[in-house]
Amino acid sequence: MQLQQLAYFVAVAELRHFTRAAERVHVAQPSLSQQIRALERELGAELFRRARGNIALTDAGEALLPLARRILADTDTARLEVQELVQLRRGRVRLGATPSLCTGLLPDVLRAYHLQYPGIHLIIEEAGSRDLVREVATGNLDLALLILPLQSHDPALATTALLREELVVVSPASEPPLWEGGRLRIEDLRDQPLVMFRQGYDLREFTLGACRAAGFEPTFAVEGGEMDAVLGFVESGLGLAVVPRMVADRRDTVRVTRFADPGLHRTIGLGRRNDVEPPRAARELQRVLVDYLTRAADANDLPPGTRAIRTESGSGTGRRRRTSRSAASDVPPELESEDE
Fold it and tell me: Which residues form the HTH lysR-type domain (predicted)?
């Protein structure tokens, strides 16, 4: 049984005339008659009584007519819904991001995307890079904004470097500066009490790696919590913390101290499955993200302490690569000079 045969049957049933039905469905009348007879043979029953030019439905035809109409209507509905999804009128995107990126970058990007595609449902998951990698690899997320290089290798994952992010030290704004000249080195944190993020948090691993690369283990005054909690502990005078400048510059209750050259930086990238094409809505979100970063970079309007990573040709943002494990994961490879 074919949809075309059902459409021909409904046309004849409604018009009670083979020639006019053929005109409605834009087919020659003999072809329509052949398809109706083929449908009758398949069903094992006549659908029409043909007598002296009059066409009437048999009992089998009466039973089939509402079912055929429903099947054709459902087919039209399915076709329209798929077309709407392809044209980004409806659908969903599952995006993961680290906590600092959720507050420092995503609001502007998602607003730009929503203005273009208001019918797309955005689902945001906030987690550390390690958890986000797992969720992308298992198909629970379409895309993820995470920190590079990744600490685990997955050949199914591809990443695109997007931004370089500056890290700074925050202390209570109510207290005087701890360092003369306004800049410090990572070694200056050796004897300072630190407020440290929870286990599994990207900034925890990064800060520990930077301190160990400088030859010391940091002292924790408070351990545990995520960004808001850590900043709250700093504001209360419990210790210092290393945080992204894009987050720190938005808080007037903390004092921001930058690292002396070469500074402390890390790379922000976009991760996706390498072996499965993301949904159209997710691919459009990736395009909107890159376009937003490119325009913001050209207008000097990126979040504080970030700069776009350009391709070698200088046009566009980001470089796609397969994931790889750092040769020494405890030593951040991001300790390098930057043009600020």
Answer: 1-58
Angle of CA points 309, 311, 315, to nearest 5°: 105
pLDDT tens digits, residue range 226-262? 899 999 999 999 999 999 999 999 899 999 999 998 8
Residues of the chain with pLDDT under 70: 87, 311-340
Give all domains of the chain, ordered by start, each with its CATH number. Answer: 3-84 (1.10.10.10), 91-163+268-322 (3.40.190.10), 165-259 (3.40.190.10)
Where does residue 151 rank: exposed (0-12), middle (13-18), buried (19+ CB within 10 A)?
Answer: middle
d(CA 265, CA 270): 17
Q: What confidence score (pLDDT) does residue 317 get? A: 55
pLDDT for residue 318: 54
Type of residue numbered 273: R
CA distance 168 to 245: 6
Which pLDDT value is given to residue 151? 76
Q: Which long-range contacts (CB under 8 A, 24 or more apart) does 171-177 make?
A: 171/234, 171/240, 171/254, 171/255, 171/257, 172/234, 172/235, 172/236, 172/237, 172/253, 172/254, 172/255, 173/235, 173/252, 173/253, 173/254, 173/255, 174/237, 175/237, 175/255, 177/255, 177/257
Alpha-carbon separation of residue 105 from 145, 272, 301 (angstroms):
10, 18, 12
Amino acid 293: pLDDT: 95
Q: What is the pTM of this model?
A: 0.69
